[in-house]
Q: What sequence folds into this?
């Protein structure tokens, strides 16, 4: 995998910057730094390095297609991955699966469930409403984590980070 180096320059004013530095590899912010301007520069770079899909059972699955994860009630150590277009079942523990995926997308809401926060339309104190209308319980243990993840999603969306 190819890695890149990004430069972010903080300057007092642009008149001190050499025009030769103005290309795609350099970004400039004028001091004092506005947090929204800094976020607008950093988020697109960060998003470039978040995987867009995962490989499950030899097939590529877009992260955006995953609605939620459910621990199988039929078999031990099985997780059902509920997609917009079906279900994939895989072996393993939900905790291990979540640790392998970007925390910016997925959050546990129940001992048996984890949701894709980007496919969540609404949360209440005890319920997460997903994009297709499915409602999943949010237990007290995970309530604060879900709330924080949902607020990050809303903030990112308002900043234009999620398209």
A:
């Amino acid at each position: 995998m190819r890695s890149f180096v990004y430069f972010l320059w903080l300057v007092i004013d642009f008149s001190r910057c050499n025009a030769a530095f103005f290309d795609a590899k350099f970004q400039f912010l004028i001091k004092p730094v506005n947090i929204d301007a800094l976020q607008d520069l950093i988020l697109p770079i960060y998003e470039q390095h978040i995987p867009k899909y995962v490989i499950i059972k030899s097939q590529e699955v877009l992260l955006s297609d995953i609605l939620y994860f459910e621990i199988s009630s039929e078999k031990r150590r099985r997780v059902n991955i509920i997609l917009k277009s079906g279900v994939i079942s895989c072996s393993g523990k939900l905790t291990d699966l979540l640790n392998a995926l970007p925390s910016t997308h997925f959050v546990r809401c129940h001992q048996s469930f984890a949701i894709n926060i980007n496919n969540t339309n609404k949360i209440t104190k005890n319920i997460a409403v997903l994009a297709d209308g499915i409602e999943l319980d949010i237990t007290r243990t995970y309530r604060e984590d879900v709330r924080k993840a949902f607020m990050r999603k809303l903030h990112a969306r308002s900043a234009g980070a999620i398209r």
Q: What stands out?
A: The longest strand covers residues 66-71. The longest helix spans residues 143-158. Helices lie at 35-48, 94-99, 143-158.
